[in-house]
Amino acid sequence: MTLKFIQEINSGFKNAFLKREIICCYINNGECTLADLGREMGVSVPTVTKLVTELMDDGFVLELGKQETSGGRRPSIYGLNANSGYFVGVDMRQFHINIGVINFKGELVDSQMNIPFQMGRTHESFDN
Questions:
Q1: What spatial distance separates the first Cα and last Cα of the chain, rounded to whole Å?
Q2: DSSP H or E run through 34
Q3: Domain range annotation of the chain
Q4: Are 76 and 33 within 8 A, CB to CB?
């Protein structure tokens, strides 16, 4: 995540809160149009457009194409950029460790399971 975005969240700006809500909507619902996103969040389309544009500039959101319609202007579909961030999860057991890496969309990228490890009550047990 960009430092600017993290600073906005930490300082409590309303826009940062709304950006976080947009990211959560994309995580929970997948890709959608700006109008759908505005309805889901209860926010105006111009506000959503401004915030999604900022998230695109920061690399978190991508325009994924156009929605099929029976007529009229086809709205753009937006969604998360899976490669904009990664998260590592570590599951430590008494005799092994499991490690998983997921991308920003929550998709498993890689994992290593059952890595031998002896859990001990000393700092040295973490030096392997």
A1: 30
A2: helix 34-41
A3: 3-81, 86-126
A4: yes
* Beta sheet of 86-92, edge-to-edge order: 86-92, 96-103, 108-116
Query: Across the chain, where does the E strand assignment appear?
Result: 61-66, 76-80, 86-92, 96-103, 108-116
- Residue 121: both structure tokens together: 């009550």
Q: What is the pTM of this model?
A: 0.73
The partner residues of 115 in beta bridges, in order of sequence, read 97
Output the six-digit token pair for 103. 């991308």
**What pLDDT digit, counting tens, does each position of 85-104 carry?**
899 999 999 889 999 999 98
Q: What angle do CA 14, 17, 23 make, to 5 degrees?
A: 145
Structural fold of domain 3-81: Arc Repressor Mutant, subunit A (1.10.10)
Within 10 angstroms of residue 34's Cβ, the number of other Cβ atoms is 20
Provide the 3-class DSSP secondary structure of residue 74: coil
